[in-house]
Protein 1
Amino acid sequence: MVHASIITIGDELLIGQVIDTNSAWLAQEMNKIGIWVKRRVAVGDLADDIWNALDQEAAHSQIILITGGLGPTADDITKPLLCKYFDGKLVVNEAVLKHVRYLFEEVFRRPPPILDRNLRQAEVPDTCEVLFNRAGTAPGMWFEKNGRIFISMPGVPNEMKTIVKDHVLERLKSHFRVPAIESRTLVTFGMGESAVAERIKEFEENLPAHIKLAYLPNYGMVRLRLTGTGNNSEIISGEMDSLFETLKLQLSDIMVTDKDEPIELAVSNLLISKGKTLSTAESCTGGFIAQLFTSHAGSSAFYKGGMVSYANQVKEDLLQVDHQTILDNGAVSEETVRQMVKGALDAFKTDFALATSGIMGPGGGTETKPVGTIWIAVGNRDKIIAQKFNFRFERKRNIDISSYNAINLLRKFVGDHG
Amino acid sequence: MVHASIITIGDELLIGQVIDTNSAWLAQEMNKIGIWVKRRVAVGDLADDIWNALDQEAAHSQIILITGGLGPTADDITKPLLCKYFDGKLVVNEAVLKHVRYLFEEVFRRPPPILDRNLRQAEVPDTCEVLFNRAGTAPGMWFEKNGRIFISMPGVPNEMKTIVKDHVLERLKSHFRVPAIESRTLVTFGMGESAVAERIKEFEENLPAHIKLAYLPNYGMVRLRLTGTGNNSEIISGEMDSLFETLKLQLSDIMVTDKDEPIELAVSNLLISKGKTLSTAESCTGGFIAQLFTSHAGSSAFYKGGMVSYANQVKEDLLQVDHQTILDNGAVSEETVRQMVKGALDAFKTDFALATSGIMGPGGGTETKPVGTIWIAVGNRDKIIAQKFNFRFERKRNIDISSYNAINLLRKFVGDHG
């Protein structure tokens, strides 16, 4: 099996100012072409630490992917160091220089002159192959040393991804004889990780050595991923299909989707397939549900709109929630969320509506309605159902898990009454 | 300087199924007590790789923080390995066992019997000090070996954070003589990273060796963080204050906040301090702006509510956007967003309103209005301003950067007309 290491360079990673999303994306892309990421290492902008990491990872892996340390405000440590490490000298690459000028003059429309630190992005070690960066000024660099491949890329996610898709994947595939890799993913809702594991214990124990099962629990969901490796993609694909069918059967009652997709996308496709429309009336979730649905292309096909009715006056004025209802039961009550659904169905003229009202914290909790109490309602013109939940997390997590539970209630309701 | 390494264990990190947010949080907490995270390493659920990482990081750092590999569905590799690595044997910890029973019976309310794999969470190596985990079943473990400190914790963020705050920080502070660390952060908007760097070139070049400046660009903002290290916290603090004042003066025209806070929180506090209220009318940003404001505690003090007017019909019915206006100019136009602001001010009865309408992609672009075109308007009863932007990213990034630009327009407007 071909092994890769990922080295991320930059103090910002070590002081925790930035969360490393590049490594996860890189790992997924490597997996798709049958390369296993064995280690990920983050080091700061220190020559010794970077050099040391290059030596160390070269001992672990055939491929060393390096991100960061190349930006215009980087402390000019990484590029000279790569020059030294790969016995080269810095030379200006004319194609890159032309591109940098183009970006600043035509795209960014920055007033001249172009800063030195930007022009210097065109300097590369003469011992590397330049991987042209359509998306930015810092080019990628491909080095080979002692049978190892080192690929240096800028840390800006969008630029790194462009370079990988444009150049890196194809070159790696043609350079290594990589195995066939197949994966299947399904998502469950409402059962704990260990309970799910217990239910499919036998299935998991009987998996052949070349097929692995990974659990990824989050927000009441568990994402199960089967990954199989082999030499013949057709054989492994058939093997995976039949195993996946078995797994789906054993989890059918709690399965949300049998694709590697977020739950809101599964519900979106369900609504689109039925030609039904949706509106939302969010109090405590504050628009999080709306932005989950609308973050995916094509959402306008079923999502008409939503109300963030944060103030009670808004619930009354724009969702026709009865003033007395709020006085008698409070804004966080079954009666209120039921009326919010009615109000949304009328205001937005949709087939289905979803409503939330709760106390997300840290303040606002009471004896009878502690922080984490939330009422969720979903319905159509004929029927409205409501359910109460109690969560015990901090504010943001309460909002997120409330939203995912609301979307799951919607999924079930549309399935039963769509 | 005391150095720490972070080791994260788990295949899910290496197949990219989960993004590592723990390391960034851990690094920030370590920095606050004057400990520098020198390296971060991620390895899979493989005994050799974990053992190897422990040896390697012990050569780099005095403190080795380990997260992951302890969950009930973990492949039972990490704990036995730690047992072996620290020459201990697994014993049941009665306090933890009692806690596990309590969680399953009283908190999770799971039907008995409690699964073996859950009860086994109470088994710990007899060579560790148990770090009690209020938030979950897997306890933290504190080991010492050859003058190095190894701290093993579960990978679930909420549980890891609870253990660190309850036990780890205090113990580390009393165990090491850590230096004083001070940091100051400000955020700029609307100027590129390299242009900002160019403007403060001299300031940066004249910084003393013990004070560092870090740049973190994102969504048109640049977060600048000064970090100083010294022996006397008062001296370093005074030094930092005067340097920070100089930096603020040089960037005053583009500074959004002089605190380490997100821009929407700076605007929220501005509105609260002025006793003014806000509503939002979002088309293309789909509720992202609303959820940014409401994700912070206390937002109900100024945020009354918002409309996600995704369909044109909703813009007309609920925001009184003139039908003819949309016919003549399209939904993505200055006239439409101006009317959306009016509609929101009336519907939500607020002092200020913010509106967005654009084409986020991938579909929907035209010759005259390509993907990335967005109109943003902000106003009060007396005045409404509108501005057009063109972004060139994929859908989600277009949504995010549009939202942050809208919030920055609001910030300026409230500053000028609040």
Protein 2
Amino acid sequence: MDETRLSLIDGEARALLGVHDRGLMYGDGVFRTIRVRDGRPLWWADQLGKLAADAHRLGIAMPEPALWARDVDRLLAQAPAECVLKLVLTRGPATRGYRPVPASPPTRIVMVSPMPAQIEAVAARGARLHLCRLRLAEQPALAGIKHLNRLENVLAAAEFDPQDYDEGLLLDTAGRVVGGVRSNLFVYRAGRLRTPRLERCGVAGVARARLLALAARLKLPVCEDDIGLEEVLEADELWLSNSLIRLWPVSRLGSRLWQPSHLAYSLRAQMDDD
Amino acid sequence: MDETRLSLIDGEARALLGVHDRGLMYGDGVFRTIRVRDGRPLWWADQLGKLAADAHRLGIAMPEPALWARDVDRLLAQAPAECVLKLVLTRGPATRGYRPVPASPPTRIVMVSPMPAQIEAVAARGARLHLCRLRLAEQPALAGIKHLNRLENVLAAAEFDPQDYDEGLLLDTAGRVVGGVRSNLFVYRAGRLRTPRLERCGVAGVARARLLALAARLKLPVCEDDIGLEEVLEADELWLSNSLIRLWPVSRLGSRLWQPSHLAYSLRAQMDDD
């Protein structure tokens, strides 16, 4: 067995899903990507809370937290101490066209995969950002949710070579900055922290929420707002966040260069406290 | 075995797909829904051509037509003579984040499911349309493609009870008419046929292309254009198209009523000629 690719489906050790599942047919589901450190899933309560909130927005029944916890305990007992945990919740196999079948049981998937290399190396040198040509569509009904409809992210990620760039920067169709392809963005300038509002598109990640809360505790002024590309280029510092990287300082966007700062690394270290 | 739910994955009689497949993880794939009549898939060349065109737009490798044909022959030999055939093509199991792995093999799925009831009954009495509250996002990079990111359709279909309505009418965020939740829309007025342009959102279906071609052969003036809701309400006739229903005349939208016409049924019958 490949211990880096373990999975449970509805609590059973399986790696195969019914082909009629709405997760495959329509991308009708939500997911979470979670860092596992020393065998423990980090930010667990936040992650499960976000999964429940996203499921609620789509009207997908959320399994009991105890079921998720039992699955995760079982899987992590066989997994490397440092790995990536993925929770997937789909609306299940009941399909008669697009319309959801009321009160049908969802599908609960827990997966483990290897921790990507380079996370710490990029944190140390700073991330190189590619400005994506793809613009994110504005869909308030899905904005903020980490759902399984991720073709925009796939197309954006295909735009750049990971040898040259560590992340892509996404704008919406109106030219507002939304965030990274797989991360949220923070703009730091003159002692103030700003991050894009995510009511029209983008994913409101758990790391973003934790960084906002941490900044508030540190009395750092924070604001969610509409942010343009000029503001990004005029930033004193630019940071990316997600649950795996926690925080990456950005070192380059086009010809604009930044030096990673002590503040960035201090915040990054404090985000690690679970 | 449930003969109404047969499936082949990469040519093997299987109903289970690897949980790491990008079709599930990201909705990273395309599909086709095909009417089977007397054991034959209708509009086969058009369907396969559209699947290839959609796959090309997403950069997914298209398997040889002969492979699809062999799968379909095998499956239909065991299936009811009247059923629904679904072809699904995903970017395959190779995943290391959103970025597609170049030259990785796709996953080829062929499925059979029962023909929905009521198609002929609705055709006879006319379809009752619900005006959906959900507005379609404008994403030119995905517009026209029948891809696996269908959460907008799921949310729109959840808005209405199929006891009361046969289809939902979708507008985009700017208020332009796009089409039905699972169909394309045609507006007929004063001898002229118009259908929404689909460069910003929506799916450009095979039935739509066939109806446009048929109208052109019949010297009926046809035009793809921006269409507003007022124009829909002022139509002499309103038609919906997809590969299963072929053409449904619309009988009701809000308080506006229409009578199904001879023209609609004549076109519907001619669409059936393969």
Protein 3
Amino acid sequence: MLLSKIANILGAEFFGEDREILSLNALDLAKESELSFCESEKHTKRLQSTKAGALILDKNMLDLAPKDCVKIVSKTPYLSFAIISKYFAKPLISKEGKDPIIAENCQIMERAYIGKDTKIGKNSTIMSGVYIGDRVEIGEDCVIYPNTTIYNDCKIGNRCSLHAGAVIGGDGFGYAHDSSGRHYKIYHSGNVVIEDDVEIGANSTIDRALFASTIIKEGTKIDNLVMIAHNCEIGQNSILAAQVGLSGSTVVGRNVVFGGQAGSVGHIKIGDFATIAARGGVSKSISGGKVYAGFPLLEHREWLKMHSKIARLIKQKQKQEV
Amino acid sequence: MLLSKIANILGAEFFGEDREILSLNALDLAKESELSFCESEKHTKRLQSTKAGALILDKNMLDLAPKDCVKIVSKTPYLSFAIISKYFAKPLISKEGKDPIIAENCQIMERAYIGKDTKIGKNSTIMSGVYIGDRVEIGEDCVIYPNTTIYNDCKIGNRCSLHAGAVIGGDGFGYAHDSSGRHYKIYHSGNVVIEDDVEIGANSTIDRALFASTIIKEGTKIDNLVMIAHNCEIGQNSILAAQVGLSGSTVVGRNVVFGGQAGSVGHIKIGDFATIAARGGVSKSISGGKVYAGFPLLEHREWLKMHSKIARLIKQKQKQEV
Amino acid sequence: MLLSKIANILGAEFFGEDREILSLNALDLAKESELSFCESEKHTKRLQSTKAGALILDKNMLDLAPKDCVKIVSKTPYLSFAIISKYFAKPLISKEGKDPIIAENCQIMERAYIGKDTKIGKNSTIMSGVYIGDRVEIGEDCVIYPNTTIYNDCKIGNRCSLHAGAVIGGDGFGYAHDSSGRHYKIYHSGNVVIEDDVEIGANSTIDRALFASTIIKEGTKIDNLVMIAHNCEIGQNSILAAQVGLSGSTVVGRNVVFGGQAGSVGHIKIGDFATIAARGGVSKSISGGKVYAGFPLLEHREWLKMHSKIARLIKQKQKQEV
């Protein structure tokens, strides 16, 4: 889409020469042919070094962006970006493209749907009711159980099991808001990458990244009804028990263990070999190799002490009152 | 069904003239042709003003009901009502009725099921494995992702997205109990109404109302694995992050935000523009425009203070003990 | 499989005569033709009385096992067992076996899959998109809603309802680990048994047992998005509200009530008629007939007292500081 058309849709001015924009991307990932945005001065550094061909940004920040970059001016760059993201969304169901390539010795049950330009590695089993979108890659020796859904562009490694009802690659839960409180969907153009030897439980959901990939590294095991939001990265050999929920852009190290119903806010890091006990709620980055519990989160032994002290304090209080 | 037959099924007496009952309803919604019930004296006011043609109620309450109303006497009106609700349940799969009406420019993939008397608005996409029951209405420009299920009689507005595996209109979780501890299903005859511009995440579930409708108002965005119970009403432009759970008959205002894994008991009101932080547990009605956290729920700043004070108290305690 | 071959796969020595092993089983369930394992001295008693034909165990424990039992020596018996469990997994999709037997008056919608040697009782309804594996038994008057998945070998009683998207019989979340932190799947050969008059909510998941059965007893009602892990046993007429999660081998009595988002660690017992309030987290066995709340769990009245005392303590503290 021509930049002039984008500016026109947004009713915005642009500074620089008109050019064709092929896709949208993050400040630090965008290329010559891509449009990005900068919402706040927090990102000044990333802005100064961006390779994006065009940017949406506030008037005040015009001078901070690279000179050869075309600028679209908006008081609400994130909202403008959300509005324009819709126009760059790929079609939901490709009408063109090649028939899927199914390697030898696969078992594809009736009533499985496999989209265009999709590849399935040898010895894999795709069961009834599975939906696999376009341009998906599934490795060798995988089992995709019934009624699982894999959205367009996702990649699954070798020897993976996706249990019934799992949903891989749904849109990230991201919206921009206008001053009236209305929400505008950010169309997520990234995908989900699941590496080798990963198992994902029944009815768990892993959302696609805004750009780039939500990543589940090799050997990680995920139980039922787990939610992994857009742009998370889970290190190798981690364990996520049932009903765990990770917010967007959580970066989890290797061999991390989450007990059942634990959770995490987004945009934080969890160190290698950390263990978060059942129900633990992580609200800031934590170092690895330790056991944590509670919400607010404490080291597990502190959490135990705290609860025994609360119990004692209350008993003493009771005596004093008697 | 004739009232005499209903009384017969229940082994109960009835006072008044026999008449045909067409459906069941709540005390304040019931009409001439409908049967309702009154379980407790808490509802005396609603009982006195009911327009129901017939009622199930305890002997003691006979005099409180309108005179022209036919009365079935039961020591356990709610249980009697549950037992009889089964007989008024509509068939699960209509054999009669018209073929669905699909407006122009829709994309209906193979292996989607669309029931009798169902209407789908123009430009909508229904993907593989979707089940849409009877008498459902879906608006224009909707996307119903793979393996989603929409039960009978539900209504979806324009420009809605229902992500893979979502279940709309499942039976509310309501039972009456007898003295032996056995549970009797209350058949839910209501539906779910989803207004325009609503997005619902993968594997989320929204249950149908007992009577009338569970309502999701326009512009509201719901993340993955969220549970909304029967008879809830969610105001416009609200945001429910992943794994939130709302109990039956929760009334949520407009632009309310629920963080991940938050929850609410039923039969309460949450004011406009309230924010409930992740994991917050709402156990009584709360006013709008504020930020809440914790369980028991506090205003967010109080919750933060409380936790810093607990930490300090415990440190002091430790010193005293040293 | 011959024991010599098993030892060969594991690169392990064995003591005793070679024999054919037909399946794997727990120490106390194993028969002459079965292989079991013993990981720790905690299980010495079960080891001494096992009827297993062969065992995987540590050198140190060789003398504790019955004499006529063939022994495979491993420093990591559980890991060895996990590795070998893969070889005993039944095929995912039977190619042999008889066509399913559907009793009179059933309604089987198009696009339902029903596996080999499966039986469905009279008057049952199987809706579109349902997947029913091999050797499954479903009773009379059941409704299996759309897009539900029932894995191989599970048994469902009479008058059960399984709402849309429910997953019955997925693999238990069990792995052995090696010293490098890699996880090895324990293939679960058990099943799920659901007795009469059970209702299971939309998108809930019930995992199969490692051996024997995960059991949901008669009359129990389970809401949406509930997780019941492998080898749990839920007593009759219990109630599990939405988003409850039970860890493996939890034994729940009769008429137990779990409020929404409550949970339990595994390998504990919950007494008859216990009530766990919403969000309650059970971390040890609890006696029946009481109401519990909180995490750590307390009796409900203690939990209420505790929170009112914490509130008071903090107010006093504030005064003292002023």
